[in-house]
Amino acid sequence: MTERENLLHVLKRTGEAKWAPIMADCMLGIVPTPIKDRPTPNGVDGYDWFGCHWTFDHDIQGYAQTPGHPLPLTDLSKWREQIKFPDLDAIDWEAGAKKDLENFDRENKALHIFTDSGAYERFFQLYGMAETFVALIEEPELCLEIMDALADFRIKFYEKIATHYKPDTVFVMDDLGSSNGPLISMEMYREFIKPFDKKIIKSIHDNDIYVMYHSCGCMEDFIEDLIEIGADIIQPFQGGINNQEKAQEAFGDRVIFCRGLNNLVHLSSATEEALRKEMRRVLDLFWPKKNLIVQTLSYYPDNIPILLDEAHKYNAELLSR
Questions:
Q1: What CA–CA distances, in Å, run from 248 to 5, 239, 251?
Q2: How far apart are alpha carbons 124 and 57 in whole angstroms?
Q3: DSSP strand pairing (292-293 vs 53-57)
Q4: CB within 8 A of 66, min separation 6: which ones?
């Protein structure tokens, strides 16, 4: 069985996976060259394709919007004029895919496409987070119009990805949680975010692609809704701030979790013992239902080989039984 075949058994919930799939082993994860959700080339400050300005943080190897920089959307009533949607038809997707997938071994590895900024996140990137929260209360009709337009853009965007890259999985990203609970009430989520994520995910499923839904923070309250709208995988579902045991018991037969590590461990200068213990904890919790994809991401490069080694040791034990 190849790494890709083993992963597909997890994605299809056949129960026949022989080991816990590790993203570094079973997937090629890429940000397609034509995508400009963040400045390109990666690692530099600059504008994305909507005109939002970003600053690269070298400590966490990621972007944050530049504080105090002018935002593209200043007047909700003029959103049709002020939001400049990228022309997806003008992009040479075929050339991008040819470059990005050169020498890719599709038989042995799955293709995973990373994308940023779902419709909800793009809204507040364009308008400001505090301003968006106020607008959801004061101008709900305009907000729904904007969310609908942003969702339609994402649908067309994913159709281009499906046609030219033919991935197995794609990343759908809308951060919903803070460190201790939802960033938005469940009522407002169900009115302003859920319907649009639902139609985006449906369009992805229509192209036979699995959805990895990314939401940082404490987001366990959203799991039932995310399953309802079609999320196949929930990532990163951090330990320590989410009740993972309760979620696994309630939803482990209906959704796959990815990563699950406690940020205070794997995103810190933790001891080797602590890292190995945390990786083993996650595997012991989720793998009995075979609903885990292992991810060994860390801002501390020295942590990654330790986490990876422990996951490999666990899989060796599975294969020896």
A1: 24, 12, 5
A2: 20
A3: unpaired
A4: 45, 53, 54, 55
- What are 285-318's pLDDT values in tens digits? 999 999 999 999 898 889 999 999 999 999 999 9
Q: At 210, which amino acid appears? A: Y
Give a three-class secondary structure readout of 262-295: EHHHHCCCCCHHHHHHHHHHHHHHHHHHCCEEEC
Could you give the CA distance from residue 300 to residue 228 in angstroms, rounded to a whole number? Answer: 36
HSE-CB of 315 using CA atoms within 13 angstroms = 19
- What is the rounded CA–CA span in Å between residue 101 and residue 274? 37
User: What pLDDT score was predicted for residue 41?
Assistant: 81
Q: Rounded CA gap, 203 and 160, in Å? A: 11
Reported as half-sphere exposure (CB side, CA atoms, 13 A), residue 175 has a value of 15
